[in-house]
Amino acid sequence: MSPSDQPTAEPLPQPVLRPVCLFIPSFGDGGVERMMVNIARGIADQGVPVDFMVGRREAPFLDSLPPTVTIHALGRVPPRERQRFLAEYVARSRPAVVLSAKTEDDRIALAVKATASTDTRYFLRPGTTMSERWRARGKNRLKRWWEQRELRHLFQRADGVVAVSEGVAADIAEVTGIPPSRIRVVRNPNITPEFYAQAREPLDHHWFGPDQPPVIMGVGGLRTQKDFSTLIKAFALLRASRPCRLMILGQGRQQGRLVRLARDLGVAEDVALPGFEPNPYRFLARAKLFALSSLWEGSPNVLTEALALGTPVVSTDCRSGPREITRDGAFGALVPVGDVDALAAAMEETLRNPRQPDVLKEAVQEYRMDISARRYLAAFGLIGEG
């Protein structure tokens, strides 16, 4: 069966009647938010009631939630009011599970757990390697000690932890001291039922026209973690030896600096930073190569999505995610973090000898939304393994 013909998930034969609550009032426009929406969708498709708690109803990605998911909009309120809202909801609705995915939301959820009288279970979903983030951001020893102390306190109070990758699971165990047996790994639900249809949507951009140079894609927030400056420098080396173009989809405070870097390197005409794109898949599907240059990750969604579309990939071997997703580099070249020369050489080699699309697509079928949803329910103890 080809990935584009994936079956529609059938609901569980005996649906769980108590709802699963996804608590993310700090909702923004990033990968964590998109994955939480997909988790909600997948669980709802299994016939389980889902309540989704956010700050505002107009937030990105929420329009893809089905009518069976109840959205609770808290409004722009301080943490104490968010805690009161969640506590009243838990007392009233007695959800089977509350899942949170950001530290500020974890604090609130576990504060409610400490005072609630229901048997609701509270799960945390870490999405990145905290130790690498501290190191890359230059946290001093005192700040790292304080943050690690807080994380230990949080995670030891949770009923369970669901990590997005083996690397994140190992990092959380090391940082917090909780036993690895309390941490479950469930892959992100990147591949939704509409994923391939979105990739086939029209794209009116002359760079993707016939007889145009190959386009290399980068996708993500324009911030330190993604290290797009290394990608632009590597592209400049590659561009000196062959015609090609680089497009980076995303927005962030580093945009001006990246534009200036491309200009200083003499490649500004072949580098585009068009901003946030709600449907990056139509770009990824038409690109000749996707490059991930991150300093650290948890489980980089766009790397999985590029492979699911059959687009060849190159990635830094950052902790964690790329090595797991590419199966130790079998489905995409891995290079050292921050190594401009190695990244340029890997992009050159991949453009010359790309892997077959069908092979790349099959490598990431574990990231289908229906498979991920069942594994979340199993991690919550709401269904059996299988």
UniProtKB/TrEMBL annotation:
Protein name from the UniProt record: Glycosyl transferase group 1
Organism field: Thiocapsa marina 5811
The UniProt record lists the keyword Flavoprotein: no
InterPro entries, per the entry: Glyco_trans_1, Glyco_trans_4-like_N
Residues covered by the Glycosyl transferase family domain: 210-365
Swiss-Prot/TrEMBL keywords: Transferase
Coiled coil (UniProt feature): none
Gene3D superfamilies: Glycogen Phosphorylase B (3.40.50.2000)
Transmembrane spans: none
Any one GO BP annotation for this protein: carbohydrate derivative metabolic process
GO molecular function, one term: glycosyltransferase activity
Keyword Membrane: no
A UniProt-annotated Pfam family: Glycos_transf_1
Phylogenetic placement of the source organism: Bacteria, Pseudomonadati, Pseudomonadota, Gammaproteobacteria, Chromatiales
Domain Glycosyltransferase subfamily 4-like N-terminal: 30-188
